[in-house]
Design goal:
3 domains, Cytochrome Bc1 Complex, Chain D, domain 2, mainly alpha
Length: about 280
């Protein structure tokens, strides 16, 4: 049912493992699919990282699909032929077992997928992003949004607060989250990356962007920028980190120098006081 490409194995593991948090367990299946599945799958919109799930119950029966959602590794390890086919298509990348997954929850998701598959167009068909060629203006706007110099329309934070890419400047970007220099390649192009940005699946990004989602034109500009970062020199990040270290070292030297000047002034003052006091005692003696 679900397959992934090898370059995305670690990313998907983090998305899928982190996405099924305690907060989403109380939500309805549509909210669960949007927050935890839509970044990798569509219903009727074509393959993304994983396969299109439209009419998935026509490929395998409900019991098999439920067992696979609950424990993909167990089904694969059993030698099941269809699971082995999925594993081969995914280049040996295995869908991780989702924390908190139960038979009832898997059934609810399959009911949702079945109902959406019958519609002329599912709400989960995927984001509609223009397929026109990127322009230099798209790339520049995406870069400025990444850096926070152009604010996001709905008030979300800039990417650089947590991420970096090659060529963002002398000091680089954030290090709390992955380097996005090759994210366009890792997500296999415009469509998958655009869809992921529409509904980010990691817990941190869900919390931030659930109330402030990106707009379509913002997604297009950011994807254009991320495509452009593939051509940047890999030495840029190392240089930025070196500059940051050197700046920190320089700042430390300046601070130590100031402390030295202040300490010397205090030392001279104390010595002057002691000499004066000692002279006064000798005079009275």
């Amino acid at each position: 049912m679900i397959r992934t490409s090898t370059p995305l194995r670690g990313i998907l593991a983090a998305c899928l493992l982190g996405g099924w948090s305690a907060t989403t367990r109380a939500q309805d299946p549509a909210a669960d699919f949007r927050q935890n599945c839509m970044s990798c799958h569509t219903i009727g919109g074509g393959r993304l990282t994983g396969p299109d799930l439209k009419n998935v119950d026509q490929r395998k029966d409900r019991d098999w699909l439920t067992r696979f959602i609950m424990d993909p590794r167990a089904v694969i390890d059993s030698g099941d032929p269809y699971a082995q086919e999925l594993l081969k298509d995914a280049r040996n990348a295995v869908m991780p077992t989702l924390p908190g997954m139960t038979r009832a929850r898997a059934t609810a998701l399959l009911d949702l997928i079945g109902a959406e598959s019958k519609l002329e167009k599912s709400q989960f068909a995927g984001v509609q992003i223009s397929d026109r060629p990127f322009t230099p203006e798209d790339i520049e706007r995406g870069r400025l949004m990444f850096l926070g110099r152009v604010p996001l329309a709905r008030g979300g934070p800039s990417c650089i607060a947590c991420h970096t890419t090659n060529g963002v400047g002398a000091l680089g970007g954030g290090t709390l989250a992955p380097d996005l220099t090759t994210v366009f390649e890792r997500y296999e192009g415009r469509k998958t990356l655009s869809t992921w940005l529409t509904a980010p699946a990691t817990p941190t990004m869900q919390a931030v962007f659930r109330q402030a989602p990106l707009e379509s034109d913002e997604i297009l500009a950011l994807v254009a920028y991320f495509q452009s970062t593939l051509q940047r020199s890999p030495d840029d990040v190392a240089t930025s980190r070196l500059n940051f270290v050197l700046l920190g070292l320089g700042g430390t030297i300046v601070v130590l120098g100031l402390f030295d000047v202040i300490w010397r002034g205090r030392l001279k003052s104390v010595r002057r006081m002691l000499v004066h006091r000692n002279g006064s005692e000798n005079t009275h003696g």
